[in-house]
Amino acid sequence: MADTNVKTDELLALERRYCSFGDTVHYLEPPKVFVNCEGSYLYDEQGIPYLDLQMWYSAASFGYKNARLNEALKRQLERLPQLACQYLHAEKIEVAARIAQYCEKRFGVKGRVHFNVGGSQAIEDSLKVVRNYTGKNLAFAFMGGYHGRTLGASAITSSYRYRRRYGHFGDRAQFVPFPYCFRCFYGMKRATCNLYCADQFAKLFESEYHGVWDAREEGAEFGAFYIEAVQGTGGYAVPPQEYFARLKATCDRRKILLVDDEIQMGVYRTGKFWAIENFGITPDIIVFGKALTNGLNPLSGIWAREELIAPEVLPPGSTHSTFSSNTLGTAVALETLKMLEEEDYEKRVQEKGAYFLAGLRELQQRHPGVIGDVDGLGLALRIEICKEDGITPDRDLAGRIFAEGLKGSLEVGERKYGLVLDVGGYYKNVFTLAPAFTITREEMDLALELLDQLLGRCRN
Amino acid sequence: MADTNVKTDELLALERRYCSFGDTVHYLEPPKVFVNCEGSYLYDEQGIPYLDLQMWYSAASFGYKNARLNEALKRQLERLPQLACQYLHAEKIEVAARIAQYCEKRFGVKGRVHFNVGGSQAIEDSLKVVRNYTGKNLAFAFMGGYHGRTLGASAITSSYRYRRRYGHFGDRAQFVPFPYCFRCFYGMKRATCNLYCADQFAKLFESEYHGVWDAREEGAEFGAFYIEAVQGTGGYAVPPQEYFARLKATCDRRKILLVDDEIQMGVYRTGKFWAIENFGITPDIIVFGKALTNGLNPLSGIWAREELIAPEVLPPGSTHSTFSSNTLGTAVALETLKMLEEEDYEKRVQEKGAYFLAGLRELQQRHPGVIGDVDGLGLALRIEICKEDGITPDRDLAGRIFAEGLKGSLEVGERKYGLVLDVGGYYKNVFTLAPAFTITREEMDLALELLDQLLGRCRN
Amino acid sequence: MADTNVKTDELLALERRYCSFGDTVHYLEPPKVFVNCEGSYLYDEQGIPYLDLQMWYSAASFGYKNARLNEALKRQLERLPQLACQYLHAEKIEVAARIAQYCEKRFGVKGRVHFNVGGSQAIEDSLKVVRNYTGKNLAFAFMGGYHGRTLGASAITSSYRYRRRYGHFGDRAQFVPFPYCFRCFYGMKRATCNLYCADQFAKLFESEYHGVWDAREEGAEFGAFYIEAVQGTGGYAVPPQEYFARLKATCDRRKILLVDDEIQMGVYRTGKFWAIENFGITPDIIVFGKALTNGLNPLSGIWAREELIAPEVLPPGSTHSTFSSNTLGTAVALETLKMLEEEDYEKRVQEKGAYFLAGLRELQQRHPGVIGDVDGLGLALRIEICKEDGITPDRDLAGRIFAEGLKGSLEVGERKYGLVLDVGGYYKNVFTLAPAFTITREEMDLALELLDQLLGRCRN
Amino acid sequence: MADTNVKTDELLALERRYCSFGDTVHYLEPPKVFVNCEGSYLYDEQGIPYLDLQMWYSAASFGYKNARLNEALKRQLERLPQLACQYLHAEKIEVAARIAQYCEKRFGVKGRVHFNVGGSQAIEDSLKVVRNYTGKNLAFAFMGGYHGRTLGASAITSSYRYRRRYGHFGDRAQFVPFPYCFRCFYGMKRATCNLYCADQFAKLFESEYHGVWDAREEGAEFGAFYIEAVQGTGGYAVPPQEYFARLKATCDRRKILLVDDEIQMGVYRTGKFWAIENFGITPDIIVFGKALTNGLNPLSGIWAREELIAPEVLPPGSTHSTFSSNTLGTAVALETLKMLEEEDYEKRVQEKGAYFLAGLRELQQRHPGVIGDVDGLGLALRIEICKEDGITPDRDLAGRIFAEGLKGSLEVGERKYGLVLDVGGYYKNVFTLAPAFTITREEMDLALELLDQLLGRCRN
């Protein structure tokens, strides 16, 4: 393991003494140590493969150690591994141009790209663009939405748990029910609701006494609505097809910008380059990150419509970050974009997603009730673990399955396996699956087998 | 250039159309494109070397393409280039342990390390630690201080220009004069001031009517004081030796945490691992980033005293960032720390710094008045450009020198050179020099020669 | 007119030049000047009587120039008209004791009374009590709710119009639909809704991802819920009988204080001393003002449960206002309380209210559609002016009726009359009637006649 | 006592049980009960006269039970004691016109008057005017400044003690040292300082890195500077003659409005109608209250320059308060203004002030050291109680003197007396004297005698 010559037990002892627990480690006790990875697998110190169905929250969508992308990083290491972002290098410009050109082609709207590092910082940049353009600090966001953990991003992230320890948040968003139809906040049924939730949002603006609109001035108290087209942390719930068109119409009428957070769902996770393309609307701002570098670099950024981001509106010096368009990250991102142009990822992801979803539906048949819901868009898939009634969230069971998968003690054929899952959702009872786009049918079959074993082991 | 096959003119055209100008590019018009780097030099498309005296704002302190550190990155690329941060890998633990052990040795205080990506996000984490521990949103910070550009970091960064476009900042810091003695805010003289500025800060707490202290409850309205031991963006001003001891005594007495932002000055820039070590105090929190990976990865983090960051105080889930302790970044950081243990960087940096500073003082002799001040600590050096009176800031001249250096048209011997400078300071008239720790005496001599030429060309 | 010897035209000219229009005058152009008042009538300079159905937004509930209360003011003028509130006088204590004793009798809960001047300042004091006790800045409040116009009160007042001009409100409330069943925000019908709105509020706390609750800590992001039992400015809508019990149960379970704003509805306007008594719950804090002095003095205050306001929780110096428990105001308030003890106001107000409401229902019969809704509780009555469809708000018609009433050109018998109405409601189409408790059956009959005439004149 | 027939002991028992202690009562334990007042005297239940040197914090400047003003209140009680403020009455207009005309004559600037009740609410209105006009939430204010206790007013009031219990204040002012020369914050001496404090404030704008100014946009982060020309709660310190001209020049250059809080010092307390008239500058907004009605009604208001308050800038509906321009208050205020026009109050107050100040200086001679400072402007006078060194604040001694005065056990001639003092200042060691303008030479002599006795009794 590594060139550190330190054994796992010693490592864990050091960790307990010197590492903050404040990050997300220590959900499992003790935390799991991995030493190698390849394709769809992580490996522990015993060499046991763990089939990974969450691929670093969709950051490593193109598979661990993707040869082509690793090579791109190495090339840039030889050429121009470092450069202050006040100077230009080719790859930055190329990546920006390709993304902007793609958006122009898809949406018919001119725009520009702005880089940063880490999803939260790109969210912060989007907040700046919104505030600068609208003059307003406040935003709408979705219940179940997650946009990061800086203070600014926490203010628009739904879970109060992420804010509780940190004092008063003067820019806290107003949280609006997401069309999470399996558990409709309004208690409606999809078949008959006629998107009641979209109407409820529109209704906020019908009287100034609903609190957000001044009819005399035709102005809203809120500058933007932050969305994820498919919620990530919120549990990979897929909204009704027509929902976002209705929401966008209200936002446009009320002069509210729509900011589309594609950090987790962008770059083909849902079968389209941007997840929002599944829903037929054009956002005002797109925020991206994660998978663009396959996790090799925290490169992130935003695309915004020209009028929000033109140089005269957002002039030089408006934002800054030392590593914003760093050469290593942009080189990998450029290679990713080239790769995406050379193959039909839309088809690849949709086909694999359909195959996996079908398998999951069969699994649900075998575990009725306990698997309350199965759904997906592209390779963003969800399994919702419930009590026997098929609706009451079973957080404990989900937790046991998660932990059992990480023991590495499952067996298929003669081999031992582990299974890497991620637990999400409003009630922490949803497995949010984000397999590698390189996953094979055999690996998906194996995944279903391992899930079946885990369900068998953990249901009591 | 690159494997993009796009010429510079075309690149610049693409950039003007598709790139946001909101970052710091376009300070120079058109922005400068670089295609290669090595040691202390950047190279343009004509192959002209630009001696770099600012090394990416101190992010690439160990020289461009440092072979050992590049190699560490490549090794990790082969081994474990990707891993969700909820799982552990050896290098993360090793880096945390080494930093915490170093702090324990130096300061005699136990603590823990917490990772993130990008300096601003580490600052945000420190704000969370402060708010969680003190229950207070407000902080003191220095005039001239710079801590990043997220909304939270902007609130404690002095320049109002960084906030102006972005609405109301409800957590704006109270800014306190930094001991920038060349331009004392209080108009005092160092020889006779007896650290008047430190007394003025202490005086804030003498009456509740000074606005920050409730004597009945013995509590302050402010939870922390954010400092840079030597200000980065503020112009590399070196405070009097005794200043921070006085400041810390007041903070301790008034229950205000001292957060030491070492993002730019940490990792030996000032001749000590932490810049604050030059001043004999123990901060409550240290924030670090940049040079720890020599710019190969935006890894950043904080160290905090045990009572602020122990698991029961800051439990799992308190913060999170996808890339927080990413494997590539921690692998390079670990190699950096090993390298630092194998050689006496304190001596190396101090000796080179002394040599360079001596040269700068000679340069000042040749350009009296125009070089109003020259100073430095380790390899953090400053040249303050003034009018003939030796005190009035000459921002225009500093700008002309900066632009002229980037033309690549200086000549020494038979060769053409450029000079990469960075302009900082309260009046944008200070060259803040952060040369590579690998800079040679010959390169320093060359730098002085190039500076002399530039001064000759640009003074009119 | 007055001893000012200035004619009305001159007065209006002076007003246009020297008076701010920022207060609510100039809704009518030119504003109406009155010179005398008596019982239920205001008089203009021609001596024309205007039957007043709104009695200064319920501040003069006991009739203009109520002899007993005027006399109390005069007595105090002779005795102790001025006294700094750091000293005590008997009436202050008597008023506080009687209110606290009344609450203890009605609610079975010990508490204390705290004075201020003006409803908004009492609201501000309640905000302080909430923040001090809960440590939280944020509150829930109702859509349609109105609590005053200081910055703090505006933050919890629903209409964005009251905030729009005044920058960012970092403590803005989250506004929850009020059970205004004639126009249910959720589009439900009262007969079948089972208080869906109360359930929706409870649902906010079911998942941390709904944005307000941290289940791990069992804590909410909001410290209080501000209510008016019957909304004043919101249009005198009367909620379903069981609503507040359901709301209070949720608040109790989620540790959210219920603050009952009785400024407009308290002191028997709804037939009970406190309007909330109609709904069978005990609030944590009550805010009162207006009618307690019959408009002779802005005395206001709060009652709060002992644990929120005991001296050790809210010690001396926690708040202050020069005029807070001024001797003139407390003397009148004491007389009011004595008067209320001597007669059965519950019966008086309920009987008159029933008579008036019956008349209004007849009026509705004669103007079907246009009078979309008529309702009331005690002598808080509402007439909602609609289009012919009986539901679309007709703001213009309401405005025309209001203006026509102020012309003083209605005729009954041989006499000219005016009618003073107040327009409120979410769509400014509701006449909110607050007649004097001294109004006679003859005056109510006259009011119905005048309303009928106005409707006849103004419908086109 | 009163018509309440309750004895003092019973009253105190009721008070302890039913009254909040959160207001300023209970500074003395038990609080003092008064039952009558007349001229310069308060009377307790034994009929002992207490010479009042603080006249309800300057609210009752024209003497208790001033016959003319009491009569004006009674007249309005007979005529028009109640009227909703959306209708006009003559006295409101007359008062507004007279104040605006006075300001126009004195300052050469057109403006308008806007009413409210209570000083804090007028301050809130001024905050609204500032925010509306400048678009900025933040303000400068003075250390030692006091502007009220609503949340908005507390944010610009210096003492942190007034904010501590109430959570985060997102609009907290930046507090600037007041020219309180006896205890210069900067440690300067008036004779040689050349108004160093004014220069320090101007210096804040010299570099964007001082935190408040963006030179590129020529804009400040702060919309207004709130001042009291002579600080009230801060201890009646009189600033150097030239100070405010210097401050105003900086404010004008930096586009910062100057808001002059005259609530305590206005209406001739300092010998001029507005205290600021002593200093030769024109404020942008004036806030007034207290003495305008001699404490008979909490009428308050603001005057603002036309461009800040013209109807098109601050249209109808911008603010509102039920009691804002109530008929009783405006009637008394109008009588006050007439009275002020009929006699030379400037001369009267200045002469009495000079006589009293001379007496206080003699008293200081008799108690050197202990009376560290004596000063005054008009009838706003100060006595600063110190240790023997003449500078260390002696809060305890001040407190003992205050309490002893309220015992009513002093004797002059054959009579028993009490003395009513008010303790203020940054260290609660200053007697801030605000005697009635009707005080006689004999009463001033008596005051000096009583002070001398108290000092004799309480120094140990």
Characteristic key phrases:
homotetramer; 460 residues; alpha/beta; five-stranded mixed beta sheet
In short:
Chain A is an alpha/beta fold and 460 residues long.
**What oligomeric state is this?**
homotetramer
Shape of chain A: globular
Low-confidence stretches of chain A: 1-5
Arithmetic mean pLDDT of chain A: 96
Describe the structure.
4 copies of one chain form a homotetramer. Chain A is an alpha/beta fold. The first copy, chain A, has 14 helices and 18 strands. A 7-stranded mixed β-sheet of chain A has the order 4-12-11-10-9-5-6, sandwiched between helices. A 5-stranded mixed β-sheet of chain A has the order 1-2-3-16-15. Chain A has a 4-stranded antiparallel β-sheet with strand order 13-14-18-17, with helices on one face. In chain A, a hairpin with a 5-residue loop joins strand 17 and strand 18. In chain A, helix 8 runs parallel beside helix 9 and helix 13 crosses helix 14. The longest helix of chain A is centred in the C-terminal third of the chain and has 22 residues. Chain A is globular. The N terminus of chain A is likely disordered. At the B-D interface, helix 8, strand 7 and strand 8 of B face helix 8, strand 7 and strand 8 of D.
Give the helices and strands, then pairings:
The structure is a homotetramer of 460-residue chains.
Chain A: H1 8-18, E1 36-38, E2 41-43, E3 49-52, H2 55-58, H3 67-79, H4 90-107, E4 111-117, H5 119-134, E5 138-142, H6 151-155, E6 174-176, H7 190-193, H8 196-203, E7 213-214, E8 219-220, E9 222-227, H9 243-253, E10 257-261, E11 285-288, E12 299-305, H10 306-309, H11 327-342, H12 345-366, E13 371-377, E14 380-385, H13 395-405, E15 410-412, E16 415-420, E17 423-424, E18 430-433, H14 441-458
Parallel strand pairs in A: 3-16, 5-6, 5-9, 9-10, 10-11
Antiparallel strand pairs in A: 1-2, 2-3, 4-12, 7-8, 11-12, 13-14, 14-18, 15-16, 17-18
